[in-house]
Amino acid sequence: MTRNPKNKKRNTKVVSSMFDSIPHELVSEVLSRVALSSIKDIFNAKLSCKMMNEIAEDMYLYQHVSLDEVPVIPWKPISQEQVTFLNTCLQSKNPESLYKQAVLDYFNKTNLESTCMHLQKAVKNGHTGALYVTCIVLLFSGDEELKQ
């Protein structure tokens, strides 16, 4: 049985128009939940169609993307696209990104102010690891004013 190429075009158009009828806010929420579980899946979704790519560029998604698969210190040089992605996560106040930046700043001993700022933002955005580290630092700091 051979397929008629005209039918394929028509079917693609129907699927496309049905997809366009879904509110972008709903698609954004679904994509943010995908991003919470897998960074690879969100990149694959972005590659699937132009509309998904546009919706996936929302800062809301960058704020929720899981960075579990991204090492704090990469073993090999990362591409410019990866640097841009990580910077966008940081700018959108992604809690994991803020925490990882605080850890990098602390161990590089470049800027203690930056470390505290990123750690504080990560705590404010709900990162439990950042809250734990902050509590430990305050417990052992000996500064009663900071503990308050």
Task: Characterise this structure.
Helix 2 packs antiparallel against helix 3, helix 7 runs antiparallel to helix 8 and helix 8 crosses helix 9 (128-141). The radius of gyration is 21 Å and the shape is elongated. The longest helix has 16 residues, at 5-20. It has helices at residues 5-20, 24-37, 39-48, 50-55, 59-64, 80-91, 95-108, 112-124, 128-141, 144-147. Helices cover 74% and strands 0% of the residues. The chain is built from 10 helices and no strands. The chain is mainly α and 148 residues long. It starts with a helix and ends with a helix.
In short:
The protein has helices at 5-20, 24-37, 39-48, 50-55, 59-64, 80-91, 95-108, 112-124, 128-141, 144-147.
> Helical element count?
10
Topology as a string of helices (H) and strands (E):
HHHHHHHHHH
Distance between the termini: 76 Å
Average pLDDT, all residues:
81
Provide the gyration radius in Å: 21 Å
General form = elongated
Structural class: mainly alpha
Binned, the helix content reads over 70%
For the secondary structure, the number of strands is: 0
Low-confidence stretches: none
The major beta sheet can be summarized as: none
Strand content: under 5%
Please write out the topology.
Elements: H1 5-20, H2 24-37, H3 39-48, H4 50-55, H5 59-64, H6 80-91, H7 95-108, H8 112-124, H9 128-141, H10 144-147
List its traits.
148 residues, mainly alpha, 10 helices, 74% helix, elongated
